[in-house]
Specification:
The complex is a heterodimer of chains A (172) and B (162).
Chain A: E1 19-22, E2 28-32, H1 36-49, E3 53-57, H2 60-70, E4 74-77, H3 86-93, E5 106-110, H4 115-124, E6 128-131, H5 136-148, E7 153-156, E8 159-162
Parallel strand pairs in A: 2-3, 2-4, 4-5, 5-6
Antiparallel strand pairs in A: 7-8
Chain B: E1 4-6, H1 11-16, E2 17-22, H2 23-41, H3 45-65, H4 69-88, H5 92-107, H6 112-127, H7 135-153
Helix pairs in contact in B: 3-4, 3-6, 4-5, 5-6, 5-7
Classes of the chains: A alpha/beta (172), B mainly alpha (162).
């Protein structure tokens, strides 16, 4: 029997022995990526997972417009893009003055794998970071993570920034 | 003012988290569907790689003809995109060479001859289908990565990467 509850242990996500999965048919996604092949690959994976809706944008400016239009549940964005890059997009999304849903989970996918880049992405407001090449398993786990274990946030100079894992203030 | 804690809403947990199968079963089902969908997409990978390599070459020619910030950024973007997509498109050797080229371009002051050499190496690997576990392709990638590391190590102190 299928059941839903908000009270499962956060430690269940991405670990063996727990009964937990994502109902993708309840979720809509925005994919922001300037490379058409990568956009297609990400869309293919998410649609195959069973997502209710996938919207695409080719850069950060178009991504912001698409976000306002579509109000997706989860944003997946590249870093390097023309006009407005992924970091700029995330900074705008985390600003309550610019976005009515500054808590939206953002998964960044990037060819950058250096630790300094991951830290910069986190400080900009990224929820989860995924180095390319993206595998279906890695993407599934990141989505499960943002759904099952939403991070607490802190307000920094007007913007909302997700807490790092292990620094959160006691989510049950 | 900094560091005011804010509890995030857990709407997605209520909306989209189910507890009807084990994590492994849910993962296997979703990933299996995605892998099957990617297999159906695979015939287009060759064309996408050809287009990516052509875009890099075009960006290189444009930069060589008119060196400047705009053409340099376009060349970096082409190399970076190729690096990103090559891994997903089963072309790891080209991904490694393009990655080295992107790092060097991001650092600034790249030797034009080495940039040319890297672009031509990518074209050759693509043309000869010398990717994946091809020993010549692997040797080219290793040589270029070594030269990139040496060039980055020789950068003047205080120079900052992109």
């Amino acid at each position: 029997m299928t059941r839903t509850t908000p009270s499962t242990s956060a430690s269940c996500a991405s670990s063996s022995g727990c009964e937990v999965r994502v109902a993708f048919d309840q979720l809509s996604f925005l994919v922001v990526e300037d490379s058409p092949p990568m956009r297609r690959i990400l869309r293919t994976m998410i649609e195959a997972f069973g997502a209710a809706r996938v919207v695409e944008a080719a850069d950060g400016i178009a991504g912001l417009a698409a976000f306002r239009e579509a109000s997706p549940d989860i944003v997946i964005t590249d870093w390097e893009m023309p006009r407005l890059d992924g970091l700029g997009l995330v900074v705008a999304l985390r600003d309550p003055a610019l976005n009515p849903n500054p808590f939206v989970p953002v998964i960044m996918v990037s060819a950058y794998a250096e630790a300094s880049r991951v830290v910069a992405a986190r400080e900009a407001g990224v929820s989860e970071y995924l180095a390319k090449p993206v595998t279906p398993r890695a993407l599934y786990d990141r989505v499960l993570s943002v759904v099952a274990e939403p991070r607490s946030f802190r307000r920094v100079e007007g913007r909302l920034v997700p807490e790092r894992r292990g620094q959160e203030g006691g989510r049950p | 003012m900094t560091d005011e804690p804010v509890r995030a809403p857990d709407d997605l947990r209520r909306k989209a988290l189910l507890f009807d199968v084990t994590y492994e079963e849910g993962l296997a089902e979703a990933v299996g569907r995605a892998e099957e969908a990617l297999r159906r997409l695979a015939p287009t990978y060759e064309r996408w790689m050809d287009e990516g390599v052509e875009q890099l070459h075009a960006a290189y020619l444009a930069h060589r003809a008119a060196p400047g910030t705009r053409t340099a950024e376009a060349l970096f973007a082409a190399a970076h995109d190729l690096r990103g997509q090559a891994g997903a498109l089963d072309a790891p050797v080209i991904g490694r060479i393009a990655g080295g080229l992107a790092r060097l371009l991001a650092a600034g002051g790249a030797d034009p001859a080495f940039v040319s050499h890297s672009v031509e190496a990518i074209r050759a690997v693509r043309r000869e289908r010398a990717d994946r576990d091809d020993p010549i392709g692997l040797a080219i990638a290793a040589e270029i990565e070594e030269r990139v590391e040496a060039a980055l190590a020789a950068r003047p102190l205080g120079s900052k990467p992109r």
